[in-house]
Design brief:
This protein has 99 residues and is an all-alpha fold. It is built from three helices and no strands.
């Protein structure tokens, strides 16, 4: 929708003063206006694509950071659980290893 609006707006802006151009130059002026409008539309499309790519990249980085944090938390819980099990053991060396 943004690309269409950019093409329409640019072409309308460029073609508004076409009556002042001589008849012989109107065809080339229209072609140039359409070419410029399509270039503006392509630029808007590229900008939207870039913004979507940045958003997707940011989301992926956050997901990776959360996954890494969760893995570290899981490892700490695992080690803590092992230590608690070792502290409840009947053998003194195992309890010492739990400390």
């Amino acid at each position: 929708m943004l690309v269409g609006a950019a093409v329409w707006g640019t072409s309308a802006w460029l073609l508004q003063g076409l009556d002042t151009v001589p008849v012989a130059g109107q065809v080339s002026a229209r072609i140039e206006a359409v070419r410029t409008a399509l270039a503006a539309g392509a630029g808007v499309g590229a900008a939207v694509t870039l913004l979507l790519a940045v958003r997707r990249q940011r989301h992926q980085e956050l997901a990776t950071a959360h996954t890494t944090h969760d893995a570290a938390e899981r490892r700490v819980i695992e080690l803590y659980t092992k230590a608690v099990e070792q502290l409840g053991n009947d053998q003194a060396p195992v309890r010492l290893g739990g400390l």
